[in-house]
Amino acid sequence: MDIYLRDSFGEQFHFPVNPEEITIQREKQLETLNILSLGEVELPQEEKVKTIAFSSFFPKSYDSSYCRYPELPHPQAAMNRLTSLMNRKQPIRLLITETAVNVLVNLSAHNTTFKGGEPDDVYFEVTFRTHREIKVRTSAGNAVGTTSTSNRPDTKPVPKVYNVKSGDTLWSIAKLELGDSSKWRVLYDKNKSVIGTNPNLIKPGQKLVMP
């Protein structure tokens, strides 16, 4: 399992250490009315925004027993990156491979802890809330506060481009990026014009668009 954040510009952040657990909270919104003859009555409303939360840490040094990749970001730089994503006005995409989590979210909380005896590592807790686009319209058909629908932010996922490295295969790329090596055929069909007729011959430097 790998956890990624992708912004609207296609830039990706890969969490280096998986959390022990990920919590997804779902809750239904209820409206409470006080009726004289019945007392309090609860009326079900829409589902509340989902909350996704987990905690982990940014290690200073690589350890193959728990790190997902060797080229680790500096813990301070990684922490600053999360802070930057939290302060953005646009939603980001949260992708957790091998799960069904692939949604637009807002990073609503980011807490940092420095532990005694481990001054180089940075521990953190993050909370995401699923993004819900406001679709209030005026009688003219435009969104409130805008003059046309073209002013709304583009929240469509930006296709990720993978740069082929020496030793890569479609099987290994599908495993790393899509979480399932059997999806190499889908990856090949998407990039057949770049790879050519032989899916076993991919070359370093080729840019493959992820499905």
TrEMBL record:
CDD domains: LysM
InterPro entries to which the protein is assigned, alphabetical: Bact_Kbp, LysM, LysM_dom_sf
Domain LysM span(s) in chain numbering: 160-210
The protein's name in its UniProt record: LysM peptidoglycan-binding domain-containing protein
